[in-house]
Write a structure and sequence with these properties.
Layout: E1 2-6, E2 15-19, E3 24-27, E4 60-63, H1 65-68, H2 74-87, E5 96-98, E6 104-107, E7 114-116, H3 135-143, E8 147-153, H4 160-163, H5 186-196, E9 201-205, H6 217-222, H7 241-258, E10 265-269, H8 276-283, E11 286-288, H9 297-308, E12 319-321, H10 337-349, E13 354-356, H11 365-371, H12 374-380, E14 389-393, E15 397-403, E16 410-416, E17 422-427, E18 438-443, E19 449-453, E20 455-460, E21 465-471, E22 489-493
Parallel strand pairs: 4-5, 4-13, 5-8, 8-9, 9-10, 10-11, 11-12
Antiparallel strand pairs: 1-2, 3-22, 6-7, 14-15, 15-16, 16-21, 17-20, 18-19, 18-21
Helix pairs in contact: 5-7, 7-8, 10-12
Length: 522
């Protein structure tokens, strides 16, 4: 058992946090972290968790990918922005409008400058020596009060050039003209995106490091220039983690130079590969923890699981990203309101970015009502940035607890992962609240209030998630548990000796002790 002692704010007493901790940690309250390359745990006397960029809370907004893939155009993007504004979602924080893959025409070989597909983005047809420019496009979004986002790849080619070969909106021209990724053009492209075109948010994919293998059918048939993969999908051991990280660090440095005031968001899209879960927090503002989400319940579970146990790696300025919301499609369309509310609630509880990604102009009003639940959004956007902790864990049901900024209020989600009703008993101990004192729960979907002492039994419908704000007497009146302050902690060194893929062992509710088992967590 490890014992971590730290001295918090000077007016508070010493705290002892006990428990088995898999990573070496440094705490913001003492501002101790590593600087020495010889000893990464040597105290530096200052906070060194990543705070660059402008993502003090998880980014919110709209992304074009799940809605349109590469079949995107200016009218669709501006239409989505207008719905955000007219529906009131923008006022609730949905202020990023992100253009994903499908926008580019080619890279001009004379000077390496990227050219925009003006047939679908007519305002980009500015002419002159630059040829095309997104400045009129970003100016429109900025005038509406939005931040503008764009997509690129850290390699030579983009994901659509491997997986959307049927698309009419792929880069065109010679092999060199179709190399639209950052490789070999980092400074040039970053200056173009941020300084010339005025974008505020950059999503950086990694297919260029994984999928254009020399001699492969893809490379031969499409006349691409092959690149030995730095990422081997499904195999961490054959992935060059250091090289992948170095690529993203180079991009991060270029963005900081281009936007020295820190008014940007850098999104790392390496799908949980290259052990990005351990280093993404030191490089970008958010990092994908899993493969692309699809509109199915099991895909949502997989992506949720990829981030739900990584609370110590997230906090203000750096967030776990289990991918954009798939609300509006498949098992999360308007005909599945229980699943829609669960998907949204879970992303809110684990401080995932809340990025809508369906055709807002033609979507039902019922989905806007879910996405506009101000109480649930408030949990996600809480300034303290404490990701919810899994307080009870099984593959039948989970209890997730999140400490809010004042340290007194808690949010709790009771989550039925399965397709049958699930009995869940919520204990005051799950909430780190006193057993003998009353606990008040306010349901953030129904707005109903109830009170219990000690424990309260619920039966959750299939796939249902109940979300409450909880008030009660704290177990520790003069201290905190580690689980209550994950957003105030920086992981100095990842304690995992051998990176590995996430486990997939099914964990049932214990039939003998119900959800009372495992309540004594730190």
């Amino acid at each position: 058992m490890n014992h971590l002692w730290h001295k918090p704010r000077e007016t508070k007493p010493w705290i002892v946090v006990c428990g088995s901790v898999a990573a070496a940690l440094s705490l913001t309250m003492t501002q101790v972290h590593a600087t020495s390359t010889d000893d990464p745990l040597a105290p530096a006397g200052r906070w060194e968790g990543n705070t660059s960029g402008s993502a003090s809370t998880p980014p919110m907004g709209w992304n074009s990918w799940n809605a349109f893939r590469t079949e995107v155009d200016e009218a669709k993007v501006m239409g989505a922005a207008q719905v955000l504004a007219d529906s009131g979602l923008a006022k609730l924080g949905y202020n990023h409008v992100i253009l994903d893959d499908g926008w580019w025409m080619k890279r001009r070989t004379s000077d390496g400058r990227l050219q925009i597909r003006t047939g679908i983005f007519p305002s980009a047809a500015t002419g002159g020596p630059d040829g095309t420019s997104f400045k009129p496009f970003t100016d429109k979004l900025h005038a509406m009060g939005f931040k503008a986002g764009i997509y690129t790849d850290v390699g030579r080619n983009a994901c659509s050039q491997a997986y959307d070969l049927h698309s009419p909106n792929l880069p065109q021209g010679t092999t060199a003209e179709r190399e639209v990724g950052l490789d070999g053009h980092v400074t040039q492209d970053i200056n173009l995106y941020f300084k010339e075109w005025g974008f505020d948010y950059l999503k950086i994919d990694a297919c260029g490091l994984a999928d254009f293998i020399p001699g492969s059918d893809l490379v031969k048939k499409q006349s691409y220039r092959g690149m030995a993969p730095l990422i081997e999908r499904g195999s961490i051991n054959r992935t060059d983690i250091g090289a992948v990280r170095a690529r993203y660090e180079t991009v991060a440095a270029a963005i900081k130079t281009a936007r020295p005031l820190g008014d940007y968001v850098m999104s790392i899209c390496a799908w949980g590969m290259a052990n990005v879960r351990s280093w993404g927090k030191d490089v970008g503002n958010l990092w994908r923890t899993s493969a692309d989400i699809t509109p199915s319940w099991t895909s949502m579970l997989h992506n949720f699981d990829s981030a739900a146990k990584r609370a110590l790696y997230a906090g203000p300025g750096h967030w776990n990203d289990p991918d954009i919301l798939h609300i509006g499609h498949g098992q999360f369309d308007a005909n599945n309101p229980v699943e829609v509310r669960s998907h949204f609630s879970l992303w809110a509880m684990i401080n995932a970015p809340l990025l809508i990604s369906y055709d807002l102009q033609h979507g039902p009003a019922s989905l806007l009502a879910v996405l506009g639940n101000a109480d649930v959004i408030r949990l996600n956007q809480d300034k303290a940035g404490h990701q919810g902790i899994v307080a009870y864990d099984s593959d039948d049901a989970q209890i997730i607890v999140k400490t809010l900024g004042d340290g007194q209020r808690k949010a709790v989600a009771l989550f039925n992962r399965g397709a049958a009703p699930a009995p869940v008993t919520l204990l005051a101990m799950h909430l780190k609240l006193a057993d003998g004192a009353p606990v008040t729960l306010r349901n953030l979907w129904t707005k109903e209030t109830l009170t219990f002492t000690g424990e309260k039994a619920f039966t959750l419908a299939p796939h249902e998630t109940l979300v409450f704000e909880a008030h009660g007497k704290r177990q520790l009146e003069h201290g905190v548990y580690l689980s209550e302050i994950p957003g105030a902690i920086n992981v100095a060194v990842d304690g995992t000796r051998q990176p590995q893929l996430d486990p997939t062992v099914h964990r049932m509710i214990d039939p003998w002790s119900s959800t009372r088992s495992g309540a004594r967590w730190t």
